């Protein structure tokens, strides 16, 4: 098998072309990347921004929203919690949609649910001075939309981008989700300074969501030709059967070493983002200051990811990056216990939030792409969707637990969430060892997709994981119509 990387040259209609190795016969495959891929990527970015902004619409102004609806802040927390549970409910449908139809049906479904959910939520906020149940129903519909756009980036980047741009594409689309949360944290507290402002705030967000959703119906569904040798096939019949693929995924130890810490850290981040105002308010910090802290958490994280993702695309140092950032995240959650009560005021909380965001967002796209590498040739959306479900489910559970651990009115200060933060720090520490032991104890972890791009034959050896491992002999990918190493059928284009 040819060991050269795909070469790049300019092509017709200003489209860049990734050609197969010059050693291939004339009948060999030709790989292209198309400029139109950025239209779909931009649409995923817009949808992820809006859907996450919707999630934290009321969290950053929890006190004001509670006054508007005439409910407690714990009831407002259910706006976030119900949204996260809705994610889990929709996820089986998401896996089937992405596996059988690809990214475009998932993007269209996201847009439809966003349109309906946002307008229902606005009606519930406006009618009769605020009808909490109607607003909650709209919020749940929006929650059902999120997994369709949040699980799509790895599949979309695998379908449209070559190996030299996948991590960055996944990062841009995935991290648009926390960018939306940052916008919600920063902007909502300025739009709704008193209870009577809440309906107009929701209206503004609904209009933005409507505008962002409409282009979804016009993006292309797939490229005319694959961008590289390891890319997702363009036709559903070329995909591995879903149930056997899931069976193999759940029988891989390394998948759990990623799944468990991923779920814990995403869950903790979701919980802290939802409760940040309630974490800081007992220390007399305002909703605006809490919003700035939430904005720093996310904006610094986006800057960090913008630096780390291109470097990962270039050097493919997935595991060292993961091993570096995971302990930093755990230390940040420990520091968050002490920051709000610091005599230095709000500044320590800002610093801890910035550090936590930098490590968390720098890690996120690297982990998602590494998961695709070690589970190759399974479909990219399988591992990422399962991981996101774990994170959202634990996020909902952590919000409930940390809300229940809130101190009473007789505490000093009253209603503080120190016990909640200790709970989070303990979980963050428990999650550290998993990623650190990947590849240890004699288990050789292959990066199957990277090897495929380099023309390395995927031959399994005892103790191998990923890219042809799990058994002895040549049980790797055998051909375009043959069986793969797991008997799942071949789903990739090969250089021969």
From TrEMBL:
GO terms for molecular function: transmembrane transporter activity. Pfam families: MFS_1 (PF07690). It comes from Aspergillus ellipticus CBS 707.79. The keyword Membrane applies. Residues 461-484 are annotated as: Disordered. Residues 463-476 have a biased composition (Gly residues). GO terms for cellular component: membrane. It comes from the Eukaryota. It is a multi-pass membrane protein. It is found in: Membrane. This is Cell surface receptor/MFS transporter. Keywords: Membrane, Receptor, Transmembrane, Transmembrane helix. The chain crosses the membrane at residues 38-56, 76-98, 105-124, 130-150, 201-219, 262-280, 292-312, 324-341, 347-370, 421-442. InterPro entries: FLVCR1-2_SLC49-like (IPR049680), MFS (IPR011701), MFS_trans_sf (IPR036259).
């Amino acid at each position: 098998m040819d060991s050269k990387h795909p070469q790049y040259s300019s092509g017709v209609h200003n489209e860049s072309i990734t050609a197969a190795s010059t050693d291939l016969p004339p009948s060999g495959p030709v790989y292209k990347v198309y400029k139109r891929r950025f239209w779909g990527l931009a649409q995923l970015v817009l949808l992820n921004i809006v859907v996450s902004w919707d999630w934290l619409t009321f969290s950053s102004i929890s006190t004001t929203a509670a006054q508007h609806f005439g409910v407690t802040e714990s009831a407002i927390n259910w706006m976030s919690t119900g949204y996260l549970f809705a994610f889990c409910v929709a996820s089986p449908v998401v896996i089937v949609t992405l596996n059988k139809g690809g990214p475009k049906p998932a993007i269209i479904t996201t847009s439809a649910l966003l349109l309906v959910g946002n307008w229902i939520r606005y009606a519930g906020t406006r009618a009769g001075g605020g009808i909490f149940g109607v607003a909650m129903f709209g919020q749940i519909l929006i929650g059902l939309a999120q997994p369709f756009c949040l699980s799509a980036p790895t599949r979309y980047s695998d379908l449209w981008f070559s190996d030299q741009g996948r991590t960055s594409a996944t990062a841009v689309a995935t991290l648009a989700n926390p960018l939306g949360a940052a916008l919600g944290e920063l902007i909502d507290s300025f739009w709704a300074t008193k209870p009577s402002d809440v309906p107009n705030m929701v209206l503004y967000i609904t209009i933005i969501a409507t505008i962002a959703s409409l282009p979804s119906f016009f993006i292309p569904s797939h490229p005319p030709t694959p961008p590289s040798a390891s890319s997702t096939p363009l036709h559903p019949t070329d995909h591995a059967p879903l149930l056997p693929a899931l069976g193999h995924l759940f029988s891989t130890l390394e998948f759990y070493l990623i799944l468990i810490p991923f779920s814990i850290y995403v869950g903790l981040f979701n919980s802290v983002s939802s409760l940040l105002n309630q974490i800081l308010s007992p220390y007399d910090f305002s909703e605006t200051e809490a919003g700035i802290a939430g904005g720093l958490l996310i904006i610094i994280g986006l800057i960090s990811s913008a630096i780390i993702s291109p470097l990962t695309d270039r050097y493919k140092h997935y595991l060292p990056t993961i091993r570096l950032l995971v302990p930093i995240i755990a230390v940040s959650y420990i520091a968050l216990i002490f920051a709000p009560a610091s005599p230095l005021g709000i500044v320590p909380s800002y610093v801890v939030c910035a550090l936590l965001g930098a490590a968390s967002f720098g890690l996120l796209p690297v982990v998602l792409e590494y998961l695709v590498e070690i589970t190759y040739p399974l479909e990219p959306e399988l591992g990422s969707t399962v991981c996101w479900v774990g994170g959202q489910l634990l996020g909902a559970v952590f919000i409930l637990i940390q809300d229940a651990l809130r101190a009473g009115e007789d505490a000093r200060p009253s209603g503080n969430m120190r016990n909640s933060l200790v709970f989070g720090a303990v979980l963050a520490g428990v999650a550290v060892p998993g990623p650190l032991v990947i590849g240890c104890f004699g288990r050789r972890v292959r990066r199957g997709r990277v090897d495929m791009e380099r023309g390395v034959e995927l031959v399994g050896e005892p103790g191998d994981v990923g890219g042809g491992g799990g058994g002895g002999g040549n049980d790797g990918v055998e051909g375009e119509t043959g069986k793969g190493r797991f008997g799942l059928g071949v789903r990739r284009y090969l250089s021969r």
